[in-house]
Design brief:
The protein has about 90 residues and is an alpha+beta fold. Helix content is about 20%, strand content about 35%. It has one domain (about 5-85). A six-stranded antiparallel sheet has the order 1-2-6-5-4-3, covered by helices on one side. A hairpin with a 2-residue loop joins strand 3 (about 55-60) and strand 4.
């Protein structure tokens, strides 16, 4: 089971949507919020509106993306760290 994550406040997501950030594992909130901010900055409107969902987009050691019509953006690393952003 996944340990409960640490809420890290909100960032502005695709289309200006408020997105709540949650960090899992050895990730501090500053890194988690920067990661999602960078992801949404890198996401093009075409990618954001892709029928299969945006991503995956690689940001250094992280890979981020989400499914079609999924309000959750999931980012992960190979060593098990995770950051989630949920459109609110």
């Amino acid at each position: 089971s996944t340990a409960p994550g640490v809420p890290c406040g909100d960032v502005t997501g695709a289309g200006g949507a408020k997105t709540a950030v949650v960090a899992h594992g050895k990730v501090d909130c500053a890194a988690a919020t920067k990661l999602l901010t960078d992801y949404f900055a890198k996401l093009t409107p075409a990618e954001a509106n892709d029928a299969d969902g945006p991503g995956p987009i690689v940001l250094d050691e992280w890979t981020c993306g989400s499914g079609a019509d999924d309000p959750v953006t999931a980012c992960s690393t190979e060593d098990g760290r995770q950051v989630e952003g949920t459109r609110g």
